[in-house]
Amino acid sequence: MKYVFSDGKKHKIFSIKNKMITAFAFFSLSIVLISCIVSITLASFSLVRNTRYFLNELVFSSSKALDERSKAMFEKLEAFSNIPDIQEDTLSYRAKIELLKNEIQLQRQRGWLNFGIGGKNGILYRTDNKTENVSREDWFQRAMTGKYAITEPVFSATERMYVSTIAIPLRDLQGKITGVISATLLGGSLSNLVSDMTVGKTGAAYLISPDGIVLGTRQPEILYKNIFTEVFESESKEFQGFLRNALSSGKSKVSISKINNTRYIAATSSMRYSGWTLLLMAPVSEFVAENITTLIRTFILIAALQLVVAIIIGFFIARRIVKPLNLMIDALHNISQGEGDLTIKLPVVGKDETGILSTYFNETISKLRNAIKNVSTGSFEMKTVGSDLESNMVSVSEFVKAITDSIDELRGHFTEQEKSVSETASAIEEVIKAIRALHEDIDRQLSVVQNSTSSLDGITKFVSSVEENIKDAQDTMQNLASATDSGRETLTQANNISQRISEASGSLIEASAVIQNIANQTNLLAMNAAIEAAHAGKAGKGFAVVASEIRKLAESSSAQGKKITTTLKNIIDEIELLASSASGAVEKFNYISNYSNEVHNAIESVVKVMDKQEENSTNIRDMIKNIGTTTSGVKYNSAEMLASSENILTQATQLDELTRVLRKTMDSIESQVDLINSATQESLEIAGKNKESIDGLVTEVGKFKTQTTDI
């Protein structure tokens, strides 16, 4: 806000109202800022604490899930060890391993490389026809004590990859431990155990041995490396200490550490069967940042709303406080412009409304004090002389004014009459022009109305034709929608039938596997029968022939079973391809059905619009016919108005000429009276102004106090 003072410069002030509004806004923002900082600090602490609890529960449940997955592998070996022929003491380990060769072929696609069976002496017979002594292996000794065993992946020169071994005790029919049954797995199978474990958005899961070797992870580049010396070798001692303590204690732990200048939260939990540790890690920001960001946005919104409310409240409170001061400023400002006690001088304090009051008051004193003192001395003498002069001039002026008023009144009447006649004549001429133009427009309008009636008749017929075509298209779209629904239902039924055939084929594959297993058992029995026949000599020759035929029959059954399995798998692949194609066709029919419905709805809308258009065209045609009838009547009336207007124009022209003659006569009389009136009026005006000036001067001077009163 700016004010102009006596020095001619504009001075900017910061008003009390603005000060109060600013104080309210600053106080409100300060409270919101403090609340925001405290709330964010408490929220961060609470979120981190909840994250620690959540991650601890997650790593515990995940380790249990890994134990269940490991247990599934052991249970598969348990199923093989419970086969009666495997438990039979009289059957050699080499013969027993032959029973598992077909099974290993089915398990290879799941990462199982071979099976092995061995006795207490540690001689292990494997399905890859190799024999080795494992009596000194830790896993063998652990299995012989009746426990499950699983080894860390080691690089196999034979397989040229990392492999792991699992083993369980082999028991006879009486439940005594007679040896071990083992399986060799791809080392990557352990990574599959943790491949589906996710922590946050970028977190990771690691399966770690007690020595710190990474056994499983979704990052193949760090697999089988030492987590302390090769993965996190440059990280903080705090994190490495936490991890070493977790690996040695085997207990679930949670810690927060900095890695690459990023705060990470890590949790560990040990596994049941192997003694390995599951490590889950993720950046803390992924659990906290989003919630903190939402909280900050909420506080920003609250701060903005509170700032607006504070400004509004501050504005009304300040306005109520400052309003009386502004009224005082206006009053003193008016006094400074020409009246008031010129002996008072207020001190100028501050640059607010009080300072403005003092400044305006002092300017008034400096502006009027000297002038009022000089004028007040002569104003009273001039007042007496002015009163006498005015009285004399008023008497003369009254007589002259009476004559002038009469002449002016008469001249005014003639002037008004002349002006009125002229305007009337001009107006009549314009009316005649307008009537003639109107008459021509009516002719053209009548012709256009007749042409419009003919055109609307054609449009109405065309709209009817278009409506019929659209209704035919609507029927066609309904037929298309029905056909589309029928095709979609047929393809759905075909897809369901294909799925049932595929399920039935799966059952046939299982039956084929059973047939092959029976053939293998029969072949083994035939071989035993041949051995017994050989021991019997000639007495067993016939039995040997029967055993040979049975073996051939078993081999033939096994070959046919494999062929059936291959054929059924091909059939299932073709059925799955057919089901996929049928599903795609059903989806396309769904698109066609949706588009057909949309087109059908659009056509219905167009039909409604065309019905409304036909109705409107009929109404417009009737209206235009009525307009044509009305236009004919208007044309006849306009012709009569044109004739009457021309007659009025003639009479007005004659009246105008007569008025001009009278005007010239009055002008001659008025010129003589004006000379007398001018002289009298000038004298009266001079006398009146003189008296008014003197009276005004005396009055204004009397309003000011120019002398101080001594006490």
TrEMBL record:
Keywords: Cell membrane, Chemotaxis, Membrane, Transducer, Transmembrane, Transmembrane helix
Coarse class of the protein's main subcellular location: membrane
Record domain HAMP: where: 319-373
SMART domains for the chain: HAMP, MA
GO biological process per UniProt: chemotaxis; signal transduction
Source organism of the structure: Treponema socranskii subsp. socranskii VPI DR56BR1116 = ATCC 35536
Domain Methyl-accepting transducer: 420-649
Compartments it resides in: Cell membrane
Presence of keyword Cell membrane: yes
InterPro entries per UniProt: dCache_1, HAMP_dom, MCPsignal_dom, Sensor-like_sf
Topology in membrane: Multi-pass membrane protein
Descriptive protein name: Methyl-accepting chemotaxis protein signaling domain protein
Transmembrane segment boundaries: 21-48, 295-318
Any single Gene Ontology cellular-component annotation: plasma membrane
Family listed: Belongs to the methyl-accepting chemotaxis (MCP) protein family.
Listed PROSITE patterns: CHEMOTAXIS_TRANSDUC_2, HAMP
